[in-house]
Design brief:
The protein has 199 residues and is α+β, with helices and mostly antiparallel strands. The protein has one domain: Nuclear Transport Factor 2, Chain: A (Roll). The protein contains eight helices and six strands, in the order ααααααββββββαα.
Length: 199
C-alpha cells in the first residue's frame, strides 16, 4: 500500500466512523454554540457512531449507518453503469448489504487509526441542488489530521448523510470504483455483488 493510499484509507475510515472505537474526546461545545442545525445533527451522528464503535459490533455500526445515511442513494450510485441490472426483487437486499459492507470495513479497520479528537466547524455551507456541507477536522493520536467534509441533505425535519470527502476523494466515488470493478470481474452479474455484500 502506498503512503497516499494509506492516508486515504485512514481518512475514509475517520469519515465513516467519525470518532472510532478509540476516540478520547469529542468536541461538542462548538456545535452547541453554533446552533447550526446541520452541524448539531452531525455532532449527534458522531456521538451515536462513537457509541456503536465502542461496542466493536459491525451490526451496531450498520444500524447507525442505516439510520443516518442516505443508504439507498449511496448504494444505487455505487453501481454506476450496472445500476439498470439490479432487479427490483434484489434491491432491498443489495442496499442493506451495502450498509453491512461499510460497517464491517469500519469495524475491521478502527484499531489501526485511533482518533484523538474531532473538531466541527461552527457553520454549515449551503451548496447547489439542496446540498449542505459540514466541515470537520479529525486528529489521530499520532498527531496527523484530516479535513473531512460531509454532504448532508434535508429530509423532512432532519438530515441524511449522503457523502463525505477526505483528501479530495468522495466516499461514494470510491465505492463506485470498487463495486463496478467487482461486477465487471464477475461477468456483469450484479447478483454476485449482492451476495458478497451480505456475507
Amino acid at each position: 500500500m502506498t503512503r497516499g493510499q494509506a492516508r486515504f484509507e485512514a481518512g475514509w475510515l475517520a469519515a465513516l466512523l467519525v470518532v472510532g472505537a478509540f476516540a478520547t474526546a469529542l468536541v461538542a461545545a462548538r456545535p452547541a454554540a453554533a446552533a447550526d442545525p446541520a452541524v448539531v445533527y452531525m455532532s449527534q451522528v458522531g456521538r451515536e457512531l462513537m457509541a456503536a464503535a465502542r461496542s466493536q459490533s459491525p451490526g451496531m455500526i450498520a444500524q447507525v449507518i442505516q439510520k443516518h445515511g442516505d443508504v439507498p442513494f449511496i448504494a444505487l450510485s455505487a453501481l454506476g453503469s450496472y445500476r439498470q441490472r439490479l432487479t427490483e426483487a434484489d434491491k432491498p437486499e443489495y442496499i442493506a448489504g451495502t450498509a453491512r459492507f461499510m460497517a464491517r470495513y469500519a469495524a475491521s479497520k478502527a484499531p489501526e487509526y485511533p482518533v484523538a479528537r474531532v473538531d466541527w466547524s461552527n457553520e454549515s455551507i449551503r451548496g447547489g441542488n439542496g446540498a449542505t456541507y459540514v466541515d470537520s477536522t479529525v486528529t489521530l493520536r499520532d498527531g496527523s489530521s484530516y479535513e473531512v467534509r460531509w454532504l448532508v441533505r434535508k429530509v423532512g425535519s432532519g438530515y441524511k448523510v449522503r457523502d463525505a470527502t477526505v483528501l479530495g476523494f468522495w466516499m461514494t466515488a470510491q465505492l463506485k470504483t470498487m463495486f463496478e470493478n467487482y461486477v465487471s470481474e464477475n461477468g456483469g452479474n450484479v447478483r454476485a455483488l449482492t451476495t458478497v455484500l451480505n456475507r
